[in-house]
Amino acid sequence: MDIQKVAVITGASQGIGAGVVEAYRSLGYAVIANSRTIVASDDDLVIAVPGDISDPAVADRVIETAVERFGRVDTLVNNAGIFIAKPFLDYTSDDFDQALAVNLGGFFHVTQNAVARMSAQRTGHVVNITTSLVEYANSSVPSALASLTKGGTAAVVKSLAIEFASRGVRFNAVSPGIIKTPLHAEESHETYAALHPMGRMGTIDDVVHGVIYLEQAPFVTGEFLHVDGGQSAGN
Fold first, then answer.
1. 6-226, CATH topology level
2. pTM beyond cutoff 0.90
3. What does residue 169 show for φ and ψ, rounded to 5 degrees?
């Protein structure tokens, strides 16, 4: 009997997250899709679980839904995140609290719950969506809070990859450049494109291909896959 594999995807209502949902469905996975604004899907194998993933109760509900409906969790894609571009001295306490809650809290609670299931299964995969600005800062895009918080979810990949390698659970990260999503106004696209050595912004498909590569590479763990048009290579 074939096992119905299950992917949990956060930040799934639009942009990269919505693209990742489609990609995992095309691979035959059932999907638990979370975001604050997610709506029910016509696809019986896409289960929407609305709520703020930084809330531990929501994180619990997301994983419980996967287990109740399908009995397992095979992949978790931690895509939910916020990016607040301000000079460091302009950040407020509210900015800090919000970035900490979503970018770190939104990773921590759901990942603990998912990995507990994966560890018991002796198989699983966690992918964190970060940003190349963590390693390649750019004066045109002030990003200290992103570096502080998304940088944490990047750094923890190697630690968890080693901790859980013997239990069959892999951890990887996709580090995108600036991606053409609804978050970026069209009038800014030319400026953002010029920040990449390849001379264009990334697309949602570019990031999705990176996630799926890692999904289908069973001997890859603890890896940072840069999908950034050469940003991290230099300028």
1. Rossmann fold (3.40.50)
2. yes
3. -110, 125
